[in-house]
Design a protein that fits this description.
The complex is a heterodimer. Chain A has strands at 3-5, 10-14, 19-21, 24-26, 31-38, 44-50, 56-58, 64-68, 73-78, 87-95, 105-106, 110-115. By secondary structure, chain A is mainly β. In chain A, a hairpin with a 5-residue loop joins strand 5 and strand 6. Chain A is globular and about 45 Å long. Chain A starts with a strand and ends with a strand. Chain B is mainly beta. Chain B has strands at residues 4-7, 10-13, 19-25, 31-38, 42-51, 54-57, 64-66, 76-78, 87-94, 105-106, 110-114. The chains are: A mainly beta, B mainly beta.
Chain lengths: 116, 115
């Protein structure tokens, strides 16, 4: 069984400040890791993912996350946030085992609120 | 445009009535999923289907039913047996075979309110 922990339910931050949203996971097998973003009353959009290779992955809008196997973490960071980044962010994990199916296990989400 | 369509966006039903949520995809994906989202609880898997005419229970299947008669469609019925059906429901799909685990695409969701 897998689990994902997002310890921070809400993160307030001022515009242009840096932010880190924390994600830790547990799994008995190799995993793929994802960050999804959700705007109010909308579905989830994939922000970035780690499948293999470089442990640092980046999105097109300035977010990045680093896979740390020893600490079982996949924290999301952005050096300078914008008002438009206000949303809920979900960390998720799936089995990196062929045939396991993409049954994503989600964390409880972190609400990022960017203030002026 | 390729994507996943959920309808309706908002749905109101009286307690004790069954209700069916629609999910259609034109991405040619084999796998489809239904998740339920409640505040502070993240998303929880209700049912999933990896191929037509086959589906499996997820973590919270009680009170729900699904069918997968066509590749592009995966409707979810919320039955009167579901104790607390008011929630935001999200449908997703993912590619086939060895790509199945690498990404999921989500619809815009249906907010169900039972009164």
């Amino acid at each position: 069984a897998q689990s994902v922990t997002q310890l921070d339910s809400q993160v307030p931050v001022f515009e242009e400040a840096p932010v880190e949203l924390r994600c830790n996971y547990s799994s008995s097998v190799s995993v793929y890791l994802f960050w999804y973003v959700q705007y109010p009353n909308q579905g989830l959009q994939l922000l970035l993912k780690y499948l293999s290779g470089s442990t640092l992955v980046k999105s097109i809008n300035g977010f990045e996350a680093e896979f740390n196997k020893s600490q079982t973490s996949f924290h999301l960071r952005k050096p300078s946030v914008h008002i438009s980044d206000t949303a809920e962010y979900f960390c998720a994990v799936s089995d990196a085992v062929t045939g396991g199916g993409n049954k994503l296990t989600f964390g409880t989400g972190t609400q990022l609120k960017v203030e002026l | 445009d390729g994507g996943i369509t959920q309808s309706p966006k908002y749905l109101f039903r009286k307690e004790g009535q069954n209700v069916t949520l629609s999910c259609e995809q034109n991405l040619n994906h084999d796998a489809m999923y239904w998740y339920r989202q409640d505040p502070g609880q993240g998303l929880r898997l209700i049912y999933y289907s990896q191929i037509v005419n086959d589906f499996q229970k997820g973590d919270i299947a009680e009170g729900y039913s699904v069918s997968r008669e066509k590749k592009e469609s995966f409707p979810l019925t919320v039955t009167s047996a579901q104790k607390n059906p008011t929630a935001f429901y999200l449908c997703a799909s993912s590619p086939s075979g060895h790509l199945m685990n690498t990404e999921a695409f989500f619809g815009q969701g249906t907010r169900l309110t039972v009164v």
